Amino acid sequence: MKIAMGNDHTAVELKEAIRKHLEEKGIEIIDLGFNGTGSCDYPVYGEKVGRAVVDGEADLGIAICGTGLGISLAANKVKGVRACVCSEPYTAKLSRLHNDCNVLCFGARVIGVEMAKMITDIWLESGFEGGRHKRRVDMIMDIEGR
Questions:
Q1: Among 27, 36, 79, 89, which residue has the fewest nearby CB atoms (within 10 Å)?
Q2: Which residues are known to be catalytic?
Q3: Where in the sequence is the domain holding 55, given as residue range(s)?
Q4: Which residues, in sequence order, are bridge partners of residue 26?
Q5: Chain centre to alpha carbon of residue 27
Q6: pTM passes above 0.85
């Protein structure tokens, strides 16, 4: 599995912790995030992660900013992205099972490293159930197409 990761200046340390956690599990990471000091603009990195996923460079994406919200909004502007903001494991699990989300977002100012690892693991372990949920995901994608 290959995951594209992106982050803004608020999430450099959390991105590194999640990257290391996933690499220890044998998951390949494409680091598209900010790695410097100072400030940067989260929409740039949300778009990069979204494009990597829809272009097939990565299977899934993880995007992190201060709250997770701004970077998810940017990622969701990329056609084909279904980004979710998760601050706890239950939403992360259902975002995959019911919504087939392909980009996970969370906030470095909202959750700690261990919670972020737990959310990431559950998100990656969960797969899309299809069935009645496929019809609903298709409806979402139809909205995007209009």
A1: 36
A2: 65, 98
A3: 2-145
A4: none
A5: 15
A6: yes
